[in-house]
Amino acid sequence: MSLDASPALVLNADYRPLSYYPLSIWPWQEVVKAVFLNRVNVVSEYERKVRSPGFEMALPSVVSLKRYVTPAKYPAFTRFNLFLRDRFTCQYCGDKNDLTFDHVTPRRCGGRTTWENVVTACASCNLLKGGRLPHECRMHPAQKPHRPTVHELHQAGRSFPPNYLHESWSDFLYWDTVLEP
């Protein structure tokens, strides 16, 4: 097994993941560095070890930060966070492919690029809606756009488990299944 296939789950000091989607994981090199700098506690280890001429260490599979990082109450407005809020689904037709974002109130009508005015839209719906208001084209989003909290995005992220979950992570994550590498 390659060392690159040995990431560590990173937990806050309260033993909760820093994020769910993307899952808060660090490559093995970052984890080893953090251990040596005394920034993390090792919670669980892989059976695999790394060695140097005078040192041997089991690779950490789960670490917790020594200092609590207060999560932001509201996430930054980014394309990824918008798609996550809308669960990677077009808010007009429900498609999950070729996603873009749409200004519910078009910019030409004074609409701004904010959480409260932008929704996920597939390219076809975005093109069909164009620069019109929802009532002009009879296209209304499935949910009213809103500014999500970090907690809401974490909840949404739990709907999308990553491709790799090590069994030592299961006590700290809340998906139905633990996938093997």
Q: What percentage of residues falls in helices of 4 or more residues? A: 10-25%
Report the mean per-residue pLDDT as an integer: 89
Rg from alpha-carbon coordinates: 21 Å
**Mind describing the biggest β-sheet?**
4 strands, mixed
**Strand coverage percent:** 15-25%
Q: What's the number of extended β-strand segments? A: 6
Find the structural class using helix and strand composition: alpha+beta
Approximate shape: elongated
- Give the termini distance in whole angstroms: 10 Å
The unreliable regions are: 175-181
Q: Strand order, main sheet: write it out.
A: 2-1-4-3
Number of helices: 5
Which series of helices and strands comes N to C?
EEHEEHEEHHH
